[in-house]
Amino acid sequence: MKILVINCGSSSLKYQLIDMDTEGVIAKGLCERIGIDGSRIVYQPAGGEKTVTESPMPTHTQAIKMVIEALTNPETGVVKNMDEIGAVGHRLVHGGEKFACSTIIDDEVIKAVEECNELAPLHNPANLIGIAACQEIMPNTPMVGVFDTAFHQTMPEEAYLYGLPYEYYKKYKVRRYGFHGTSHSYVSKRAAEVLGQPYDSLKTIVCHLGNGASVSAVKNGKSVDTSMGLTPLEGLIMGTRSGDIDPAIMEFIMKKENLDIDEMMNVLNKKSGVLGVSEMTSDFRDLEDAYLAGNQDAIRAMKVFAYRVAKYIGAYTAAMNGVDAICFTAGLGENNRYVRNDICAYLGYLGIELDQEQNAKRGEDLVISTPESKVKVMVIPTNEELAIARETLALVQK
């Protein structure tokens, strides 16, 4: 079966067409600047040339149409018509407590996702637009929703509750939900495969480190804690997000700077993180270059970031009463050996030793700790699209 995986943002749409017989990517690409001047579609068939086509995309429906036109193009396309596509898998960010697993999308599911919009106002509405666009163009093709929050629904009450009046949980479901669940699930399972160990016997810490970043504790195949909370703002310092802060800081800065709550939230979401600490950039690639050049602003930001990750690893080692494997994934986690080295420098108490030759590699599943290391340290490239496609296939085949 061929499955189309769709990941909609507010002004972008990533897509992959995957042949589930081989789990190989047939074609992939990106629609950018939807609803904005200068919109374009990037398309690349497997083994073929990447093409970039600039064309107006006023809506996500138009973007989906352009994706289908690219996939079925007589010269460069990979399918004759859309009947060859057996299902569509959609990444959905927030499912609240309603969804502990992936699900076939119907009217009831759409309504339930809409009810979670206020918990993810930047993501859920865009995800729903992508679903509606696909349903309009492919009305007879089954659609599956795969939720970022679902993997973390196994967290125990002591991990997901906040120290707030319990009535806020009963009335509004204010609690920790966590995100990047598709990535944390895929990486923890893949780590078990690489190590040749049963998934349900391992204690694994997954560090999904990118512009958005989170850490999770996966014990015996279940997420028992994760760093992001009610929203993706909590947890690690990220590209532009503050991560954990003393809540009273908000009132203090609002009074000093004469900000309202919307302006303050904009600071925390878009002007903080390594961008705010470095006063340079939110792009970790640029930070790495400056870090290696001895720029003190970049060094400060990278040190703060690495320290925060190491703290969460220590906390989750305690939460699971031990750890067997620590996995690095996502753009920064997979590609920046200096960050991995700086984080692991804090973890000598766990008996961790890095193999620097292995740590210098990238782009493949790796064990980067020495054979003598008491805890395995790994780099596992994430593959959220394949994880979504697998979930979609399993549901459609049922």
From TrEMBL:
One example GO MF annotation: acetate kinase activity
Annotated Mg(2+) binding sites: N7, E384
InterPro entries registered for this protein in UniProt: Ac/propionate_kinase, Aliphatic_acid_kin_short-chain, Aliphatic_acid_kinase_CS, ATPase_NBD
Record site: Transition state stabilizer: H180, R241
Domain of life, per lineage: Bacteria
Cofactor: Mg(2+); Mn(2+)
Cofactor annotation remark: Mg(2+). Can also accept Mn(2+).
Binding sites annotated in the UniProt record for substrate: R91
Entry EC no(s): 2.7.2.1
Pfam family, one: Acetate_kinase
Binding residue positions for ATP: K14, H208, L209, G210, N211, G212, D283, F284, R285, G331, L332, G333, E334, N335
A single Gene Ontology CC term: cytoplasm
Catalytic residues of the enzyme: D148 (proton donor/acceptor)
Biological processes annotated in GO: acetate metabolic process; acetyl-CoA biosynthetic process
Keywords: ATP-binding, Cytoplasm, Kinase, Magnesium, Metal-binding, Nucleotide-binding, Transferase
Protein's job: Catalyzes the formation of acetyl phosphate from acetate and ATP. Can also catalyze the reverse reaction.
NCBIfam families reported in the protein's UniProt record: ackA
Protein name per Swiss-Prot or TrEMBL: Acetate kinase
Species per Swiss-Prot/TrEMBL record: Diplocloster agilis
Name of the gene this protein is made from: ackA
